[in-house]
Amino acid sequence: MSGPRKKRSGLAANRGLVAAAIIFLAALAAYGVSGFGSTGSGGGTPSPAASPLFPLRTGQVSGFQVKYQDSILTVARDQKTPTVWVYSVCPKASPGCPTQTADSVQTVALLTQILALAPATTLYGAPAGMTAYGLDTPTTGELLVRNTSNKTVDLWIGGKDPNSVAYYMRRVNTTTVWSVTAASVDQILGAVAAPPKPLPSPSLVPLPSPSPSAAAQPGAPAPSPS
After folding, report:
1. Whose CA is closest to 192, among 57, 83, 95?
2. pLDDT greater at residue 79 or residue 217
3. Rounded to a whole number, what is the distance in angstroms from the first to the last CA of the chain?
4. Burial of 4 (0-12, 13-18, 19+ CB in 10 A)
5. Could you tell me what percent of the chain has a pLDDT over 90?
6. What number is the average pLDDT over the span 44-61?
7. Is the pLDDT of residue 74 over 50?
8. Helix, strand, or coil here: 15?
9. What is the C-alpha to C-alpha distance for residues 162 and 184, in angstroms, rounded to an integer?
10. How far is CA 12 from CA 22, 26, 195, in A?
């Protein structure tokens, strides 16, 4: 009886080794596909994921500009009180007009919109040429964001795509063209006509004084019933 039992135990051990080997080879194959498949010669290099055009947080920004049509909206932190923002809307021909205090809530909301811009598609090397995208010059507008180290990111806004749902954009002195949702860009450009100025304080309207005829006369007889 010991002979058959030894044979069966040996077969069971062999089956266990085979199963372990199969699991190991399957895991190795899976690792090869997931770890190296994207860089193989057959698959090519994947395009980078969409990232913000302005890689900054609001606390890292010292000021920004929105240039649209013939005007420039300039918003900056107050030099003495960094939590306070000031703004100006000036003609492009004379950009140094006086500033005034901005509404901080509206300012941060506008800045957040600018920093949240992200490309829908990326065209490396501008294959059709900058003129085809309206980016040989900033034909529609321009966005500039300056960080607290006084470094500026300058983004040009060109023409729209064939479906008019996105603007072509690029950074100055680069050849990469992005398409960015037109609705988001139009909201930002609209701030030139509607800057973040403080809302007017509500004024108290005095209540009208009651006329003497309407006031009750003490001791006056009550009207007799008809």
Report:
1. 95
2. 79
3. 129
4. exposed
5. 59
6. 68
7. yes
8. helix
9. 17
10. 15, 21, 80
Contact yes or no for 116/54 (Cβ under 8 A): no
**Rounded to the nearest 10 degrees, what angle do helices 182-189 and 104-115 cross at?**
150
Q: Distance between CA 89 and CA 194 in Å, rounded?
A: 10
**Spatial distance between the Cα atoms of 18 and 23, rounded to a whole number of angstroms:** 9
DSSP class of residue 84?
A: S
- CA dist 189 and 90 (Å) reads 14
pTM: 0.67
Residue 176 φ then ψ, to 5°: -85, 130
Q: Can you read off the two tokens belonging to residue 185?
A: 């860009």
Q: DSSP code of 125?
A: T
Question: E strands of the chain, at which residues?
Answer: 61-68, 71-77, 85-91, 100-101, 121-123, 141-147, 152-160, 166-171, 177-181
H or E stretch covering 182: helix 182-189
Any bridge partners for residue 150, and if so which?
none
As a residue count, the chain comes to: 226
